[in-house]
Amino acid sequence: MARRCEGKHQLLRDIRLFGDPVLRTKAEPVVDFDLELRNLVKDLTETMLDAPGVGLAAPQIGVSLRVFTYHVDDDEPGHLVNPRLSLDGEEEDDDEGCLSLPGLQFPTPRAPRVVASGFNMFGDPVTVEGTELLARCVQHETDHLDGILFIDRLDKKQRKLAMKAIREAEWSGIPVPQVKVSPHSTQRIS
Ligand code: NI
Questions:
Q1: Per residue in 122-163, pLDDT tens?
Q2: Which residue of the set 76, 90, 132, 141 is catalytic?
Q3: Of the N and C termini of the chain, which has fewer Cβ atoms inside 10 Å?
Q4: According to the CATH classification, is domain 3-168 in 3.40.50.300?
């Protein structure tokens, strides 16, 4: 967690990438609805808008707390603390991506309707009802709080393609096998 200097609040935070253990850690419920939480929501919102992304969960900036922000269509950015979801309808596939896996997009099954109840940063109970992209986003971000990534939701074939794309992504920490120059095969072995 970044240290804060008084009067000099840092807004843009580094987005953690696939491979960072914080993305695989179940986040803790928020207990204190204090200034620290409000600063976290502010950081998440600014980092999400800057990226830009339709949603960002606290673990993605290295904070293992059950908080996420969202920004769907041209509505005001929103946030939700300690969300509990109620899903409705038959799952539908649509392309989905994640700021922690830059450049990857795969058809991901999600329920078409969601009712999310939780709290705002002041501790007031709130409910977010969403369909389509908002429903998808709320499910994706809530998954982050449980250490689940969208690639975990893919069918076997798509997941294989996703893992291949991760291995080949330039941001990936997984070393790509290097092929020495030789008069024979120059094919990459993977
Ligand atoms: Ni994500």
A1: 999 999 999 999 999 999 999 999 999 999 999 999 999 999
A2: 141
A3: C
A4: no
